[in-house]
Amino acid sequence: MAIAFFDIDHTIVSSISAEKIFFSYLTKKRRIPLINYFRVATFFLENILFNPYKATLQNKQYLANQNKDEVIKWGKECFYAEIKKKMPKSALLAVTAHKKKGDKIILLSGNLFFLAELIKDYVGADDIVCTQLETKENLFTGKIIGLHAYKEAKRTLLKEYIKKHHLEKQEIYCYANSIADLPFLECADHPIAVNPSWHLKKEALARNWPVVFYT
């Protein structure tokens, strides 16, 4: 048995991130309070000079003071209305091929936990490692708990998962699309660049890694 770690955005979900689809969905449905757009802008301005990554990818202020159960319900609505359409058959076939071999399939992504859970169930993955959000009195605070799966943190989360589940002797496959995923891909016995950015494609070809396109 091997372990196959799949990124989600631009890998299993093509062309756009699942969270961007969700944000757009909430915007169209007018489910983001006006005050939260102000919170998003404020958080961005407070962090952009010193930590652009935090200002953008870790900016979850659009969910601040939103009821957890309602947001999760909206995530489910969005998944079936929008996100599911962005999951190419070739990506699903790659997951199925690992399942047929008896491999363990893990989705490791910076995606929001409730979106990742829906995608996990749909593709038949075994587990997820994703972004957890802080709650107080069943309301999201707009803050992240723990590591956000990006760059070196993604490598750390993979290694922690392997250690926690005693999987050190298993072969590892990693599927991802961005040069930011390089530390994650370097953990694998079998790294695969999926729909790669120009920089990752160049790096993958230099290292003789497979390059595949899911459409």
Topology:
Elements: E1 2-6, H1 18-28, H2 34-47, H3 52-56, H4 68-81, H5 89-100, E2 104-112, H6 113-123, E3 127-136, E4 139-145, H7 152-164, E5 171-176, H8 182-185, E6 190-194, H9 198-206, E7 211-212
Parallel strand pairs: 1-2, 1-5, 2-3, 5-6, 6-7
Antiparallel strand pairs: 3-4
Helix pairs in contact: 1-4, 4-6
CATH architecture: 3-Layer(aba) Sandwich
Average pLDDT rating: 96
Count of DSSP-assigned helices: 9
How would you name the CATH homologous superfamily? HAD superfamily/HAD-like
Provide the succession of SSEs.
EHHHHHEHEEHEHEHE
What sort of overall outline do the alpha carbons produce when their principal axes are compared? Answer: globular
Secondary-structure class: alpha/beta
Oligomeric organization of the protein chains? single chain
Over all CA atoms, what is the radius of gyration? Answer: 17 Å
Condensed summary:
The chain is α/β, with parallel strands linked by helices and 215 residues long. The protein has helices at residues 18-28, 34-47, 52-56, 68-81, 89-100, 113-123, 152-164, 182-185, 198-206; strands at 2-6, 104-112, 127-136, 139-145, 171-176, 190-194, 211-212. Helices cover 43% and strands 20% of the residues.
Describe the 3D structure.
The protein is 43% helix and 20% strand. The chain has one domain (2-212): HAD superfamily/HAD-like (Rossmann fold, 3-Layer(aba) Sandwich). The longest helix is centred in the first third of the chain and has 14 residues, at 34-47. A 7-stranded mixed β-sheet has the order 4-3-2-1-5-6-7. It is globular, with a radius of gyration of 17 Å. The protein is an alpha/beta fold. It has helices at residues 18-28, 34-47, 52-56, 68-81, 89-100, 113-123, 152-164, 182-185, 198-206; strands at 2-6, 104-112, 127-136, 139-145, 171-176, 190-194, 211-212. β6 (190-194), α9 (198-206) and β7 form a beta-alpha-beta unit. The mean pLDDT is 96. The relative contact order is 0.18.
